[in-house]
Design brief:
Subcellular location (chain B): Membrane
GO biological process, one term (chain B): protein insertion into ER membrane
Family (chain B): Belongs to the Asterix family.
Distance between the termini of chain B: 56 Å
Strand content of chain B: under 5%
Oligomer: heterodimer
Keywords (chain B): Membrane, Transmembrane, Transmembrane helix
Structural class of chain B: mainly alpha
Largest interface: A-B, 54 and 36 residues
Protein name (chain B): Protein Asterix-like
Distance between the termini of chain A: 118 Å
Order of helices and strands of chain A: HHHHHHHHHEEEEHEEHHEEHHHEEHH
Largest sheet of chain B: none
Shape of chain A: flat
Strand content of chain A: 5-15%
């Protein structure tokens, strides 16, 4: 088992060993570079142009407070100044504002002039001294007024100011970062989910392959070449993307090959995974059997659950053209009521749904037990595409531990290959099908002819247009030439005719 | 199910696998890549952080959903940028 596993794994790992590592490294590098960039950007924010003296002002501020506290209780500070400047500059403008408030009080003026040295007076030109106080400075005033003692006031003020500052900075930093934090955590979760989902999908595919494509399995017994590649040692599964796996088998009578495509849920993609939690999705496996030209007679047949059968009959071209829904005939066993048959002729349908199949899978009792994973079945010899004659089986995949549930359904595949390969239509049915096909072939031929004629006509019309345009261009010149010619002719006529006779 | 007495295998009828080549235009539409580009442009134009981050997320999704035969390391790095 270990050996066979390595056989399977080697192709899978071969296909993308370095790519995944690269992807991972790239993603991480990118995330880290972004983080660093944003961190540095955030750190630089508090420093605004022209206000480099932020740090220098802090000690000054404290010293100012000592002298400025009494004036605080009198006229309110002008707010427009503090609100116009950014929040981090709570301190310096206020320390400036306070001296501004009391131009009359002389003892205040000297410290205020000292503070002015640090602040460009011109910055605050033209702003009136008395302005409506802001609510926060009012609150501050009240809080400062309620507490007694200058020192305690100072301490309180200083504390509130400082704590305000730090409070202002911290929430800004955190709130500034929420988007980044959310998105980076999502990306990390995405990367983790990518790898776990990928591994889960691979395990599921390998479980299927080990059950049905390994030694002594059903496909091994039916086909001589298994897998993608030339020799016997070729890898069994081809991984096309993180949730699509293909299995190929060839070398059997009646058919030229079989291609099984496993389309699993997008477990590796977090967004699709979340979407699939809301909109249900199934792991599916589709068998396409390419029949030989001489092996398949004119059969158009489909079997699916009721709703799906109706959609298939409307959407698929060959079913639409040739086939119709077949009601369960009386007098014989038929498929369970959940299923609907779509067929060109009832006879053919009856022949294809024989007792064996009914007992095994499609009958009432059997379907309850074994038919849960069945999705649809479609045989056609008029399929559009490269190969005309194919059988298509679609089943749902169980999870890795319950692969046994699918055995009967998978066994249907070779059974039907043989059945359809050997089947010959009765005369009665054949005449009908032949007639229908001939009609459709004629219609197609007519359509092609029409299309060709239209193309020709278009070409002619285009050519004519071109000629006309050319004529229109040349008409001016042509007119002149014509006139010249006519003039010349008239001249000739006017001139006396000189008869010339030949001598000799 | 019913077993055949003779071996159904025909080694002479073996045909090697030919992967179906799909032209780049026929490939299923890469919605997540498209959305990623739109969000990226919006984010750059309107300076919305959320848009740029969403663009990155959708770009990652489109990369994750890429199929093998489309792969090229250059393409990946260009897409990330």
């Amino acid at each position: 088992m270990a050996k066979s596993r390595s056989l399977f794994i080697s192709p899978l790992s071969l296909l993308r060993p370095t790519g995944d590592a690269f992807l991972y490294i790239f993603a991480l590098l990118f995330i880290f570079s972004l983080l660093l960039h944003h961190l540095s950007a955030a750190a630089a924010h508090p420093h605004f142009e022209g206000f480099d003296a932020d740090d220098d002002d802090l000690p000054l501020e404290d010293s100012n407070h000592e002298q400025v506290v009494p004036p605080l209780r009198s006229p309110p500070p002008p707010i427009s100044l503090s609100t116009s400047t950014p929040e981090s500059h709570h301190g310096p403008p206020e320390s400036q504002i306070q001296p501004d408030r009391n131009p009359s009080s002389n003892p205040v003026k000297s410290p205020s002039t000292a503070s002015f040295e640090y602040w460009d007076e011109d910055e605050f030109e033209g702003i009136p001294q008395d302005l409506v106080p802001p609510p926060e400075s009012e609150v501050k005033q009240e809080s400062s007024e309620s507490s007694t003692g200058g020192d305690s006031d100072l301490g309180h003020l200083g504390n509130t100011e400082d704590s305000n500052k730090s409070d202002v900075r911290f929430p800004k930093k955190l709130s500034y970062y929420t988007v980044e934090i959310l998105c980076v955590s999502f990306l990390i979760m995405f990367t983790v989910n990518y790898f776990t989902g990928k591994r889960e999908n691979e395990n599921l595919a390998l479980a299927w392959a080990s059950k049905f494509a390994a030694k002594d399995s059903i496909f091994e017994k039916n086909f001589s070449l298994l897998g993608v590649g030339e020799t016997d040692d070729s890898p069994l599964l081809l991984q096309e993307g993180q949730n699509v796996f293909k299995f190929y088998a060839s070398g059997r009578r009646f058919c030229s090959g079989l291609l099984a495509t496993m389309e699993l849920k997008s477990r590796h993609d977090l967004i699709s995974k979340l979407y699939n939690m809301v909109v249900p999705c199934k792991d599916e496996i589709t068998f396409e059997v390419y029949m030989n030209d001489d092996a398949m007679d004119q059969v158009i047949f489909a079997l699916a659950r009721k709703k799906l059968a109706k959609t298939m009959q409307k959407e698929m071209k060959d079913l639409q053209r040739f086939a119709g829904l077949v009601a369960p005939p009386s007098g014989r066993k038929w498929v369970t009521e959940e299923l609907q048959v779509v067929s060109e002729s009832k006879e053919v349908a009856g022949d294809l749904i024989n007792d064996v199949v009914l007992d095994q899978v499609f009958g009432e009792k059997a379907f309850e037990k074994f038919g849960k994973l069945f999705i649809s079945m479609h045989f056609s010899d008029q399929q559009s595409g490269s190969s005309k004659k194919i059988l298509v089986f679609k089943f749902a995949l169980p999870d890795a531990n319950h692969m046994v549930d699918m055995t009967r359904l998978v066994a249907l595949v070779p059974y039907y290959i043989d059945l359809v390969g050997r089947y010959k239509l009765s005369l009665h049915a054949r005449t009908k099908t032949e007639a229908a096909r001939a009609k459709v072939a004629q219609e197609i031929y007519k359509e092609i002819q029409n299309a060709r004629q239209e193309a020709l006509q278009k070409k002619k019309a285009d050519q004519r247009k071109k000629l006309e345009e050319a004529e229109a261009k040349l008409s001016a010149e042509a007119l002149r030439k014509k006139e010249a010619k006519e003039h010349f002719r008239q001249m000739k006529k006017a001139m006396p005719k000189i008869k010339m006779s030949r001598s000799g | 199910m019913s077993s055949q007495s003779n071996d159904p295998r025909q080694p002479s009828a073996v045909r090697p696998y030919k992967p179906q080549l799909v032209a780049p235009q026929d490939l299923p539409v890469d919605y997540s890549g498209f959305i990623a580009v739109i969000f990226g442009v919006l984010g750059a134009m309107f300076r919305y952080k959320v848009c740029s981050w969403l663009a990155i997320i959708f770009c990652a999704q489109s990369l994750a959903n890429m199929r093998n035969f489309e792969n090229d390391l250059k393409q990946i790095s260009m897409a990330m940028m």
